[in-house]
Amino acid sequence: MDGSATHTAIALVGAGFGGLGAAIRLRRAGYRDFLVFDRGADVGGTWRDNTYPGCACDVPSHLYSLSFAPNPDWSRSFSPQPEIWAYLRRVADEHGVRPHLRLAHEVHSAAWDAERRVWRLATSHGAYTADVLVAAGGPLTEPSVPDLPGLAGFQGELFHSARWRHDLDLTGRRVAVVGTGASAIQFVPRIAPEVAHLTLLQRTPAWVLPRRDRPITALERALFRHVPGAQRLARAAVYWAREAQGTAFLRPALMRFGQAMARRHLRRAVADPVLRAKLTPRYTMGCKRVLLSDDYYPALTRDNVEVVTEAVTRVTPSGVVTADGREHPVDTIIFGTGFHVTNLPLARTVRGADGRTLAEHWGGSMYAYRGLTVSGFPNLFLLLGPNTGLGHNSVVFMIEAQLDYLLGALRHLDRTGVPIEPTERAQREYNAALDRRMRGTVWTTGGCRSWYLDGSGRNSTLWPGYTWSYWLRTRRFDAGAYRAVGATAGGGR
Fold first, then answer.
1. Three-state secondary-structure class, residue 332
2. CATH number at residue 325
3. Most CB atoms closer than 10 Å: which of 90, 240, 285, 317?
């Protein structure tokens, strides 16, 4: 082994839900030789980085948490960001994960060494090697900012919602918000009362349903803490309710019921027929992410808020220009434009057995076997990889299903001592079946262009089914779908 590099049996990249969940499960299974790298100064991932006003989860609290690390003290039915971040920090402390963390260690690259059969990691704090690499960075990691002409010459302040400028007082400022997705509908109601004027630049309106958030009472929290099984029962009820909603994503004709509810929600909040028309989607609900909010529509009816539907064509030193030629004078631009999901930055930094990156292998459209492993990349496991995202339920459930599969794979590696990768045939057949199941779903027939689709028009991000069906497919490691790659790798316990 290279003496200049520190060796660990298992290297995990990312200390959010995936990385921390994996670390806890590894410790419970008896593994001790592993490290968790994260570029941040603390754990938390997206819930550490996204601190914009109003940031909260769209999945009910009891389901958006690790089943093996329950939290009886959630304050609301939908958790605000500070509570989720505090939960993840507490989980790291209570489950003995801290000694394994390598925080402020950004992983610049990872390459498979075919001769020594290890992963070589270049980090901001030196070189490491590992027998197994688990990529747990998640899809909502790298903010996406559109490359607008003239942006570099803008003389005001600009930032992405995932890098919120808390040092900047927005009081009295003229603000342009670009994008109307899940982040924007949370922070727009918070900043609208403060700013002098808010120009909301909307490309496509979203379907918005009532959030129905409420405080969790002291009595409920006491029950969750002291009555065995009460919280598990609440979690199960939320889970199956969400699974039932998933049926409409697979059979889009059923979406008419949700659309009727959303239109009623819009009518009640927005009396102006012109504004209401701007906010009414022209595609099937679910084609783009369905949003939840009780205060977004009322915020848009304020006198100091204008909804602009023409596309942004360029930025001037003192404003933004839309396709109708109109310049909107602003001194602040906030991008609520989401993340690099279908073109993961990770894919450009991980190199497989042939020296090519994941991005080069994928050629613009992500794929993996079971959303976890990729042919040509031995002993690499992706958490929340291709086609494991969701439109209806909690991705934490998907992560836990993947952790079961990962542990099965590690036990197989312990027995054989030989690196593995999925066969090209298993990978090809698996993804062909996924694409067949995707046909007829709302994501491919709903009539919109969403971030679920990659540059080729393929949905390479979402799971085209119920989450329990994914759980069934990942309960056991299917060694028959893999091939051995050469000689012995080190043990991990």
1. strand
2. 3.50.50.60
3. 285
